[in-house]
Amino acid sequence: MKYVSTRGEAPSLSFEGALLAGLARDGGLYMPETWPHFSEKEIAGLAGLDYIDVAERVIRPFLEDDPCLDDLREVLEEAYAGFDHPAVTPLKQITPKLWILELFHGPTLAFKDLAMQVVARLMDRALIRKGGRATVLGATSGDTGAAAIDAFRGRKAIDVVILHPKGRVTEIQRRQMTTVDDPNVHNIALEGTFDDCQAIVKALFNDLPLRDRLHLTGVNSINWARIVAQTVYYFTSAVALGAPWRPVSYTVPTGNFGDIFAGYVAQQMGLPIQRLVIATNANDSLPRAFATGIYEPKTVIATSSPSMDIQLASNFERLMFELVDRNVGRVKELMTELQDTGKLTMTPDELTKLKEVFGAYSISEEETQETIARVYRKTGVLTDPHTAVAIGSALDERRALDQGNTTTPMVILSTADAAKFPETVERATGRVPEQPQRLKDRLGETERCTSLPADYQTVADFISKHSRAGQGEEVDA
Ligand SMILES: N[C@@H](CCOP(=O)(O)O)C(=O)O
Are 126 and 432 contacting, i.e. CB atoms less than 8 angstroms apart? Predict the structure, then answer.
């Protein structure tokens, strides 16, 4: 399997190449050249399998003829050994037509662990094979950072540098990152928003001499390996609900568009997904694009669902690539328009095509609170604010499409444990969610973090100083 850039000007790479590159050298995102396809029989054959067995079958075709394939089984076994539920991603019914897919049973209590634990191990093994070092960069609005730090801490060949927007993540999210004392972990609290963090990370990648000197790679969902590992739980949940014979819809809390794009990938692979619903908070650049055809990210608004406090969703570029039938000229035109004017304009045909599969909604702070309270009253379940935004969006989708009588199950991706957002959950329900032991075990006392202005050169200097790859240090065998 080969991987091509959405902008068509970077060399195509193997899976291992795309894994280690993160962002393509032309600023684009890597995509597989073709979609592997699963027959109805192959999908039906996933029923009753363990999560790891499904993961192996779903991911394998993306690694065909790649050195990473030999590592896959062992990596999956190690990655999911630390999850606290035997099903890895248990599915719970909350109303006759709504299911919650719990994606927070990993070490940092958020869905990011499902891919990050796999990506870190694949990367580590690839670097050991090649005898090299890497500097892993990540921008986080709350959850990616903790997951990346947990997955990469203590790895010999890798330094990890995470940028979070100062004062805009919850205390638990921050401490999950900053109390890790491994010397290969570096935290930057950036004086800005998540979009500023992500813009600096992308600028670092686009600075090719620096990128090569520091052996930069990325672990945000711009890295294709993150997406592919996230397609697995669409398969496990859809099959549990009757796929391939019964279609399933999904509602996904959306920030950087990676998780919902993984659902699109599963659909392209043959999984009968009927609708993919984009759930956002007040950062509503995607619902506005659906309403107007114009994607125009504005200033990030701080909300009680901080992981989605994002306006510029990186993976929207992957969707545009698909929407324009992989016409790289058109992608470049759209991305140049976005960069030069701050907005991107879809044609009526492109917008219609988008709406055939996707719906998009924005949920206010009040609705989020009410949803957390209502779900608790009716089911006794404490939901985190991101999941609550998704539940609100799923109900809006049902109303918008007048689907009161649909028999298609709607699965809500529950992306984080309520324990990461105790203040918000307590405000809505009067109850403080209990902290799981694995969270308590990981929160240290002393915080280590450097505050920096949102200035490219200052951040580049900090990373150069802390990257062992940049100092030419050898890896001990
Ligand atoms: N929501 C994320 C932001 C980055 O998303 P990613 O999936 O591209 O890593 C977070 O919580 O950090």
Answer: no
Helix (H), strand (E), coil (C) string for 260-313: HHHHHHHHHCCCCEEEEEEEECCCCHHHHHHHHCEECCCCCCCCCCHHHCCCCC
Residue of 113, 144, 187 best suited for mutating to test ligand 1, as the one with most atoms within 8 Å of CB: 144
Q: Is 383 near ligand 1, meaning CB less than 6 Å away?
A: no
Three-state DSSP class for 142? coil
Q: Read out DSSP for 158-202?
A: EEEEEEEETT-S-HHHHHHHHT---TTEEEEEEES-HHHHHHHHH
Considering only the C-alpha atoms of the chain, give the largest distance between any 2 of them, rounded to a whole number of Å.
63
CATH number, domain 91-109+226-435: 3.40.50.1100
Residue with CA nearest ligand 1 atom 7:
221
Are 166 and 189 within 8 A, CB to CB?
yes
Distance 206 CA to ligand 1 centre (A): 20
Q: Is the ipTM of this complex over 0.95?
A: yes
360 DSSP β-pair partners: 278
Give the containing element (helix H, strand E) for 203.
Answer: helix 194-206
Q: Say if CB 372 and CB 423 are below 8 A apart.
A: no
User: Which residue in 79, 233, 214 sits closest to 160, CA to CA?
Assistant: 214
Measured between alpha carbons, how far is 47 from 116 in angstroms, rounded to an integer? 25
Alpha-carbon span 140 to 146, nearest angstrom = 9
Distance from residue 308's CA to the centre of ligand 1 (Å): 8
Domain positions in the chain are: 91-109+226-435
The string of pLDDT tens digits covering residues 155-181 is 989 999 999 999 999 999 999 999 999
220 lines ligand 1 (CB under 6 A): yes
- Convert the pLDDT of each residue in 271-303 to its tens digit: 999 999 999 999 999 999 999 999 999 999 999
The rounded distance, in Å, linking the Cα atoms of 136 and 117 is 14
Q: Going by C-beta distance under 8 Å and a sequence separation of 6 or more, which residues neighbour residue 347? A: 293
